[in-house]
């Protein structure tokens, strides 16, 4: 689904993030064609060292883990 905005709104998008099953393959495909992309959060927050004190383990938050494995940020540019 594409983002929608009102005509009178001034929107400044920071990231355009998509979820794809074969993310790493898509990223390689884009890189080969000179299109940048980024994976900003490859490790879900609950599995990062700084949050270890919370006691979460792999499998505790499956949706967050799925998102970390499948999201890819695509380039965003303003209109000319």
A few lines on this structure:
It contains 2 helices and 2 strands. It has helices at residues 23-32, 62-70, and strands at residues 16-19, 71-74.
Key traits:
single chain; alpha+beta; 2 strands; extended
What does this structure look like?
The protein is an alpha+beta fold. It contains two helices and two strands. The model has no long low-confidence stretch (mean pLDDT 90).
Count, helices: 2
Number of strands: 2
Which band does the percent of strand residues land in?
5-15%
**Poorly predicted segments:** none
Computed CA radius of gyration, to the nearest angstrom: 16 Å
Structural class: alpha+beta
Look at the structure and give the mean pLDDT.
Answer: 90
- Overall 3D form: extended
Order of helices and strands: EHHE
For the report, how would you describe the main beta sheet? 2 strands, antiparallel
Q: What is the rounded distance between the termini?
A: 23 Å
Oligomer: single chain
Which secondary structure elements does this structure contain, and how are they paired or packed?
Layout: E1 16-19, H1 23-32, H2 62-70, E2 71-74
Antiparallel strand pairs: 1-2
